[in-house]
## 1
Amino acid sequence: MDVHRIHELLAERNEELSAVAEEIERARAEVQRLENKREKVREIAQELEALISPVRRMPTDIMAKVFEHCVRDEGMRKADPQLTPLLLGQVCRSWRSLLFSLPCLWTTLQLDFPAGAKDWDALMQSKIMSMHVWFSRSKAVPISLFLGQSKGSLIPWPTLMHLDKEILALNCRLKDLTLHFSPRSLSSLLTFAQSPLPYLQHLELQNSNSLPSNENPPAIVLHSAPSLRSFSISWCSLDLRDFQVPWSQLQQLNLQYDASPYWNPVHSDFLQVLSQCHNLTSLFLGIGAPIDDVDPETIEPVTLRNVHTFKLRSFEINNVSLSLSTFTGHTESLSFLARCADTLESVSFNRLDIADPAMLSCLAQLHHLKTMLFLPSVLRLNHGLYGRAHARRRRQHRHRDKPVPRICPSLETLHLRCSSTAPVNAIAKLATFQYGLDTRDEKIKELQARLKVFVDQGLQLVLTKSSASG
């Protein structure tokens, strides 16, 4: 075969390869066209399926309830303007339309003022605009507002005046108002108390400073708050003598007195206030340094018959010497528990150091207590309480003819602080004697095994459980 013929054959093959390549490209283009068409058809099918999905056919009132539960999530009580309910509005157009038509979803707002802001005027304008837009969607429904100042931030007085004006403008709609600010800032935000608050049910004023100070806001004077049921206040020297609050309406009261040895505390006879709180069901007390000039004979006892939750906290341990390991216990507060023993179901001891006999005597009176939080202080006093409580139960167990009063017989939940000195064995025995171990099934199995030989010989054996106490 000559060279000329070879060149002709090679040219024919190259032309054939080009034709095949062109055909492959056409085929690929067709495949791509079909794939694109398939995606479009699939999208249409998905949209059609969405139209017939149960969510689309769910009644509007049911969807509104679902949205309300999402916004009122227990894990996030205070709504953030950057989160719910705005996240729900990003799902689809119909959800967004429904979202903006439900005033109940826009009744709660939390705004925080961060530390280190460079332009407080611009920041305040932004926060106030958020308040206007947010609450405009809630129509005329009562609202809940949570405002907080970060620790260490110093908000200028003119900026606070703008915020105070906005709070005052919302007075007629406020249902819950929480202000966490420094005492100096809080003093500039109390104008709202001078106007009627017809819907206000909960008022909370808290000191946001991490360190105590001698600065205190003026006394709270509520001119009209007929719906107020919960009042919470916490700052340094808590003097309630000039407060004008409808104490008799309250069902929950939280008085946290941040006492400190670095200044002379102002005496506050909160017993006079408690004597006016006839309808209290929950009481939270933070007790500061005791005042030495109080005459015990002038103290009038107070009985709170409706209280079912009592939380006691001490911020200061007095007469403590770490080198000598001496302390003075806070037994003056235990009388509250004794007077509430008939209804008390929950109690919290936080950083209280009380001698074990006094604590045991107090707990022995709380027959209806179901929940107790017991956190001894960093000095690790009271850790012997576990062992003493166990010893008392052990005496009762051994001498049934001489009953020993049980400590908190109705207790269901016990929160303890664990440390390197916590007596693990004593705590375990305490739980064992409190609730006992159910060994009835093990006893039945043991008897069945030991009597099996007699059963095989025809013995009819019937074993039943006795009562839990038998």
Note: The two ends are 114 Å apart (CA to CA).
## 2
Amino acid sequence: MSEYFSLSDCDVIGFDLDHTLCRYHLKETSRLIYESFARYLVDHKGYDKDLLTLSPATWDFCFKGLVLDLEDGNLVKLAHDGTVLRATHGTHDLSTEDLLKHYGPKREWKHFNSLNTSYTRSAKYYFYDNYFDLPGALLCGRVVDMLHKRGNQVTSDFWKDMVAAIDHNYNTSAFREDAGTYFPSVKRNPGRYLQPCSDSVKAWLRRMKNAGKVVLLITSSHSDYCRLVCEHILGKDFEELFDVIITNALKPGFFSLVPHQRPFRTLVNDVEDSEGLPSLDKPGWYSQGNWPHLHELLKTMTGKQDPKVVYFGDSMRSDMFPASSYGKWETVMIVEEMEGEGVPSGSGSGGAQARSSSTEAPAEPREKKGKYEDQGMKTPSAASGQWGSYFVDVPRNTDGEEEGLKLSWCTHSIHTYSTMAIPSVETIADLPLDYKFPRFSPDKPSTTGYYPRPPDSLLKWAQSEPSV
């Protein structure tokens, strides 16, 4: 395998939509998602109304990569080897003594092997790895706090209510029926939540098609929401940018449910045909489906028996792990957390148009900023005071002494299942398609594969590792 990766070597270039091609205003969106879930719990399940009230400082708890242990209500941050770096019960930190008492002298999380080999969700834990469900981690922590305050025992029963809240807001008919809080809010004011793609990104997509690449859009969002998002970020003619559009793809099952895969379905007025297609015969817009049938179509479209595919996505669970493991595709992971650690997010290799790493991109006019911004609400992609860096951490022993930097499990997963990592597609949109990017490799330092450069904490970790 080459130590470099280039888009020009790929026959097919695919994209996830949400938090990949479409960047969101994370502060606004996170507040909306939290309110969507919390309001359901209060209005439909009788939970305390205090759940609806948040101070800006509370958002420091909102941190991607946490795992909720449904058996005890703990949220854990894992190291690359499955040991617990930090944990909370509800929103309250567990001390080093508590960690040793709960997880043993080696601080081993007992479900790690299951999570690390499948990345699937379980009746025993839930992995928060995308911004659509991330505010739920904060809400779950606060629910556990509330149960303790009431003197109730914490059981996994509260999770059934959380799942109902997620389904109420995100199910495939919610957009059409104006159900829940999330979709009606985005429909009323998409510009408050969605960031339009730059002209550079639109031109980049056109360059791919002009170079003879097959361009895919594969999203688990339903077709009606996908259309709203794409028209806002790419324009009314967005369908011209893609050869194949697949909505309601139900990832990771799109990749993993083999040989019991879901068939592709055609759409009429955003309603899926009840009859599944036996195969995929031509380009177009489809719903559900599976990668083996898509692969057969791509062989026909490219005229190659084994077309080389790359897929851009933001989720380890839904995008990177299954596309790499089952589809054997190249994968480019969008890691917005890089921006919070000194990595430029603008276009061009030097980030000449880079935006400030301390703000979301693009920055909103001051008069449009919500009341929380000036009061210090942390964007969910930034490092957390309570949880530390997304990429590394420093566990402490019982004496409170630091034990040395360790890679997080999320970082290890990126290095294992991604070809490369970037903070946004904007970062590489102005580069030529034949630009050669250093790729992640077990033979290379762990800092190789991040473009335009590794995050600060990883550079610090590399300096502390004599073998790197």
Note: The first helix runs from residue 26 to 45.
## 3
Amino acid sequence: MSSSATYKGSCHCGKISFSATISAPLESGHEVISCNCSVCARNGYLFVYLKDDAIKFHSGEGEGRNYGNLLFLSYTFGQGRLVHDFCPKCGTSIFGTSMLPGAFEGMKGINVRTFDHVDLNSLTLKKVDGKGL
């Protein structure tokens, strides 16, 4: 099996599309974060944290936070530890970015549910107690 894999993904309406290269393919047991905090539970987030240069956005525009030439709407809650970014048209939760210095700097937590052709039942989930933070 390859030591890395590239996955294509998008929001529901297709306004935002991207590709993400993961050093160990999801199918090989790469851990995916399943957090139980209120926003992750409501949005169904399943995060895989990747360096910014492993993610290439191909389309998307709107109003909100700017990443290159792409714009997303964003949301924070509680202590504002993570900014959640989503499509300004359909609202699909695409990724989160840590706001804590030293925590996941230069990385994004990409929602694996936005990837094309991934068998969610085959993922290796790592449970995180976000409620307890």
Note: Helices lie at 38-43.
## 4
Amino acid sequence: MFENIFCGSILESMGKINSLRYLNLSHNNLIGDIPSCIGNMATFESLDLSSSQLDGEIPTQLTNLTFLAKLNLSMNNLIGRIPQANKFSTFENDSYVGNQGLCGVPLMRKWEEDSGATVSPKKKMMTHILLMD
């Protein structure tokens, strides 16, 4: 169902689908939050919600997807800390790239506890010494 120009938000009723293993809604015009009820879809092996306009935080309920082998939430407007429980600790940077408000492992942006904001790590300055004869 990718590149179908779907508009609107992901329906909460999707969480009631019991036997779905693969869902690719990428490259659409989806908006709003990722519904936490998707975490109830225990048979999921692959979830691709990339390249839309989704926002908000990644629901911690998605860590309940214990069979999830592939996740792509890249190129959205997601914010907050990336959950680290269960399979989520195995996903690489490319699962989340393009979400400027996301932070935590595996991304390089860190979570700043006091303000709840993301902070990019400071670039290390390299000093080169040129030795001449």
Note: The chain has no helices and ten strands.
